[in-house]
């Protein structure tokens, strides 16, 4: 992978070059908890990241690789829960829903669609207001109690690659385990499962790994 990383307990842990904090979430508990994990990493507070993005796009030959070395902590505004964007006219929808708590990925697989899809904002963005997500999910699942929801977090990132840094799973798993009409799917290439193994139950949790032949892993997955 392009950015620095370290190995802890056989898990590859993300190590950013800089942490960029949205001023509106500067005092959020998850922001503070994340920053404390990186005492030697510079922290910058911003109201907008437009200038940072333009600088990277102008000066870097690898916009995607350079951008993801910067971890952005911010707030997601609007609805977290969305229907799977893969649904198209003439196709049968599998009724899959996506939640994007992170945008971009610490990995750098050559074939990943994110290489182009996030070119307009190549920064690694994490949304800290998970309490708003849980409130939205609770309301939606309760309002539509006769419907089964399949929800995944791996559309715009690897679901678990940053879980040791920003442990969303510690709140998501207990929440979904209490629901009778919802399951949560983590899609990952990582071995960052420590937070999952520490849960008392994962009855409504699905973990899926994408696997390739070793030659593809060696040549294309970083």
UniProtKB/TrEMBL annotation:
GO MF annotation: an example: 4 iron, 4 sulfur cluster binding
UniProt cross-references to InterPro entries, sorted A to Z: SPL
Pfam families the UniProt entry points to: SPL (PF20903)
One Gene Ontology term, aspect cellular component: endospore-forming forespore
PANTHER family: SPORE PHOTOPRODUCT LYASE, SPORE PHOTOPRODUCT LYASE-RELATED
Name assigned to this protein: Radical SAM core domain-containing protein
């Amino acid at each position: 992978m392009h950015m620095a990383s370290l190995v802890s307990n056989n898990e590859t842990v993300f190590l950013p070059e800089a942490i960029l904090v949205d001023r509106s979430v500067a005092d959020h508990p998850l922001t503070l908890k994340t920053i404390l994990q990186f005492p030697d990493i510079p922290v910058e507070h911003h109201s907008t990241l437009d200038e940072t993005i333009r600088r990277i796009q102008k000066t870097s030959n690898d916009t995607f690789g350079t951008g993801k070395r910067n971890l952005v902590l911010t707030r997601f505004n609007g609805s977290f829960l969305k229907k799977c964007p893969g649904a198209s006219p003439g196709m049968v929808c599998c009724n899959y829903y996506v939640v994007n708590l992170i945008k971009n990925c610490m990995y750098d697989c050559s074939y990943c669609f994110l290489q182009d899809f996030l070119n307009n904002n190549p920064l690694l963005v994490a949304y800290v207001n998970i309490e708003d997500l849980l409130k939205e999910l609770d309301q939606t699942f309760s309002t539509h109690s006769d419907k089964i929801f399949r929800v995944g977090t791996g559309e715009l990132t690897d679901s678990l690659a940053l879980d040791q840094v920003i442990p969303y799973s510690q709140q998501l798993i207990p929440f979904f385990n209490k629901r009778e009409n919802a399951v949560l799917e983590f899609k990952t290439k990582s071995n960052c499962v420590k937070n999952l193994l520490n849960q008392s139950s994962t009855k409504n949790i699905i973990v899926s790994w994408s696997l390739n032949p070793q030659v593809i892993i060696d040549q294309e997955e970083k």
